[in-house]
Amino acid sequence: MTQKDFAELAAEHDVFFYYCGYFSQPIIEASADAIRLRLECENLAYKIQRRVLGAFIEMAQNIVHYSAESLTDPNAKTDEVRFGTLAIAQTDLGIRLTCSNPVDTGTAQRLDSKLAVLSQMSLEEIRQAYRTALRAEEGEAGSKGGGIGLLTIARESSAPIEYQIMDAPNSPDLKIFQLSVTV
Q1: What is the mean pLDDT of residues 88-111?
Q2: What integer pLDDT is reported at residue 134 of this predicted model?
Q3: Taking the domains of the chain in order of start, what are their residue ranges?
């Protein structure tokens, strides 16, 4: 696919941000700046801009913390560099953010059990769970962010979060985790 083909395909689907590669904290910050400028140019309400940026940052940080494909030590707690994909598109329902990254089977199982419940919660239940998580002294076992990242994403969304966990091609011990939200 040529750059022109890709640009036409992205325009056809109203994609205004797409990144596929290795995420790090500096890449997240630079991407957030570009997205912020794009949202400002669209003259979207500040509340929508804030929610899109909040969801983007949480989704990108989840890639940095949990993707199974890493350029850095998989047990690193800082300066992580991990692989994933994140796209943002304008839809009839709002702005849709979708991220995807490989995860190990244990992480896939934890995500599935948590998201099966979270995707069925009302906004008020999400807000209450978020407040409870903020007050908790310790995060969830295996969580690098205090366990509130997915709650933050769900709280920013104007519709229930959607997710899929699929088999990774050519890698039987990995899964592909995909998460989508609409703001």
Answers
A1: 95
A2: 86
A3: 3-182
> What end-to-end distance do the CA atoms of the chain give, in Å?
30
Phi-psi map region of 43: left, alpha, beta (phi>0 left; psi -120 to 50 alpha): left
User: Is 37 a residue whose pLDDT tops 90?
Assistant: yes
Asked whether the beta carbons of 39 and 133 are under 8 A apart, the reply is no
Q: Which has the closest alpha carbon to 114: 179, 19, 32?
A: 179
The per-type count for the chain, helices as H runs and strands as E runs, is: 6, 5
CA 40 to chain centre: 21
Distance CA 159, CA 164 (A): 16
Note the pLDDT of residue 118. 94
Fold of 3-182: Heat Shock Protein 90 (3.30.565)
pLDDT attached to residue 61: 95
Q: Is the pTM of this model over 0.85?
A: yes
Listed in sequence order, the residues at least 6 apart from 66 whose beta carbon sits closer than 8 Å to its beta carbon are 82, 101, 103, 107, 144
Q: Are 93 and 159 in contact (CB under 8 A)?
A: yes
Find the mean pLDDT for residues 70-85: 89
Rounded Cα distance between 154 and 63, Å, is 16
